[in-house]
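Q: Sequence in, structure out?
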Amino acid sequence: MQISHTTPRSLGFSRLLRSPWLRPLNDPTAWDQLLSAINPMWSTRDFPARVLRIIDETSDTKTFELQPVRRWPTHQAGQHVVVEVEVNGRRLQRSFSLSSPPNGGIVSITVKRQPGARVSGWMHTQVRVGDVLRLSAPAGDFGVAPGAAPLLMLSAGSGITPLMAILSELHAQRDPRAIVFIHACRRPADFIFGARLFELAKQWPNLDLRVHYSAQQGRFNALSLAAQIVDFHRYQTLVCGPRALTDDIDNLYQSVAAAQNLRSESYSGRVLPRSAASALSHPVRVTNTKQLFTASARISLLEAAEAAGLQPAHGCRIGICKTCQCTKRSGSVENLRTGEISSEPNELIQLCVSVARSPLELTL
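A: Exactly. Output:
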């Protein structure tokens, strides 16, 4: 084992390189912004992608077909990317599932416009064919496990996007297994990819497509699933939709000891049951910038930092993309997704799904 020693001289040189007097020469972000100003398809830290086509799926949902730069890594059906856009001079990031399977360098994201959401609203009104969006590398492990078990795919609302990519890939591969696809939406006009899926079901005998219109049939839940698919527990199941739905289906599978057959992904945050500790607030020190703010245990660290005027990097805001991941130097946090409380020093946490349970030191 080779041991290297850090000398005071090398430490001083390292501090000099990080000095604000050398900015923007020592700032990778500044260099990247300079490159993109010269050519929007140039970047050293992400993957610029040109908009080739915009498809109106429903009145509030659009698909953006994109051609990323050649070094774009091959993605897997079911993965997501973080999209960065500039809105009113501020760079914003949000996570979107890829709605297309790997198909030779062209990728698609399907964006439902959410009330009050800055990024989805901006994309719907401002993005045009020929514009350039900036993508992260694809990430995530939501997908089909190998095997011959029949497949059950369940989605609600915009949760259909990763399942569409997975289903398209299975069709292209002529996968022989039986597939039941159940999608829940409010009414026929809200059925994202509806025409495409109805046509696919006509051509593909393996696909049993079912649509649940909640305006007429009520909200789809675990009881709805059990009524339609009595032997649901024998299926390999993928579910994507609001957190309330994914939690309900998860409880159903656990009740019959079939949780190992279920993989789920949600697009809304879980509300954490509040304990007595939730009424507290704790000081948070940002070690690398010397900033201080107070974090209420009732909101995530990301929300607390933003309320204090900080602008930490973030994407999905639900604990999937890891864009907001940072190092917790000391203190205790509770994970909103798992309920786990961790006090280990120098561990990576995600700001969007962590709440303070003690004074903290973070490196953002």
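The domain at 151-266 is CATH 3.40.50.80 (Rossmann fold).
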